[in-house]
Amino acid sequence: MSVRGDELFLSGSDISITGLPKVSLHDHLDGGLRGQTIVELADAIGFELPANGAEALEGWFENSADSGSLVSYLKTFDITAAVMQTSEALTRVAREFVNDLAADGVIYGEVRWAPELHQAGGLSLDEAVAAVQAGLDQGVEDALADGQRTRTGQLITAIRHAHRSMEVAELAVRHRERGVVGFDLAGPELGFPAANHRAAFDYLAQNHLPTTVHAGEADGLSSIRSALFDGRALRLGHGVRIAEDITVERQDDASTFVTLGTLSQWVKDRQIALELSPSSNLQTGAIAQWGEELIDHPFDLLYQLGFRVTVNTDNRLMSNTTLSQELALLSDAFAYDLSDLETFQLNAAAATFLPLEDREELAEAISEGFDEA
Q: End-to-end CA distance of the chain, in Å?
């Protein structure tokens, strides 16, 4: 990749990756704050930060998140959650979140967050959701004023090691006509399978609200199975460890044979989207069994085998990244060209939790934008 001003360009070309239309499926609200916003919100409530100044604080987040452990990675969210406990703070963060998506060429973004983590200041779950939606709406209006068309949808997240998933599922259904498009399960994965929340997933299925489940990041195939069959997940949050169910054999004559297990075959055949987040997957150690560099990521293997791979940021603050940067990094690592990047965006558009007609409209906008690149 090359960088010119605020834009990222495809290596060896004049094609601006930043300017390409993109879809973001896996992006956490409390993982996408601006450093300066954290400083200002913390100062307003007298909250002590681990570093002084926005730049130093952003560096602290990136260094702390690069731990090789999901549990350690998640500890950084104690800071962002602490400054997101009022309606005003939630609205500001959500508005800026959309501003930053729009600046990165994202035309549709699903924004996931856990309302149950934002009640320390006395907000009800419904008040918290309404505050975030107000900010998202303001961000969309800002984009329109700048001549950009950006849309958003909320993914209401339940925390897998807590016991409020039914309450959160009911919350999501209540707000489905007010910005909520789906449900997510997140938090420490190992030891907390989706099966623990089967009642909530049954309720969501009965009310036809789609779900995505974090699985195949800090735990393996059993977690993915539970996400699919207990959680009825239409997408897998990360899902990178589905590659554990794929056997690659290289012969002496340089030929390669690939065998899919029954689980990976199921995921491939049904085009269950994998919400892959390359930089984050490196930071949390999700791909440690394959290596420590981006080139070791199973992303390309999954792509070449026909899985519905999508590219995501996970947490822009913790990974010091953008969706454009993730695409650029993958392009450099695996020599992807413009058509590959378009495929990733069309995969994401097809996997959104929007109605079919809206998904088709997104796909058209993506194809038009790439044709003009």
A: 16
Q: Which residues contact 350 (CB under 8 A, 6 or more apart)?
A: 271, 273, 308, 359, 363
193 backbone φψ class: left, alpha, beta (φ>0; ψ -120 to 50):
beta
β-partners of residue 347 are: none
* Percent of the chain residues topping a pLDDT of 90: 91
Could you say which DSSP state residue 258 is in? E
> Which residues are registered as beta bridge partners of 274?
236, 309
Joined tokens for residue 262: 């029954």
Annotated catalytic residues are 217
Can you give the pTM of this predicted structure? 0.95
Query: Interior CA angle at 220 toward 217 and 224, to 5°?
Result: 85
Among 306, 295, 225, 293, residue whose Cα is nearest residue 258: 306
As beta bridge partners, residue 237 has 214, 275
What is the domain-level CATH number for residue 60?
A: 3.20.20.140
> Tell me, what's the pLDDT at 336?
97
Q: How many domains are contained in the chain?
A: 1
Burial 89-107 (b: 16+ CB within 10 A, else e): bbbbbbbbbbbbbbbbbbb
**Minimal CA–CA distance to 239: which of 192, 189, 304, 199?**
189
pLDDT above 80: residue 64: yes
Domain encompassing residue 257:
2-371
Helix (H) or strand (E) holding 351: helix 338-351
Asked whether the predicted pLDDT for residue 138 surpasses 70, the reply is: yes
Closest alpha carbon to 217 in 22, 73, 60, 79: 73
Euclidean distance between CA atoms 187 and 277, whole angstroms: 16
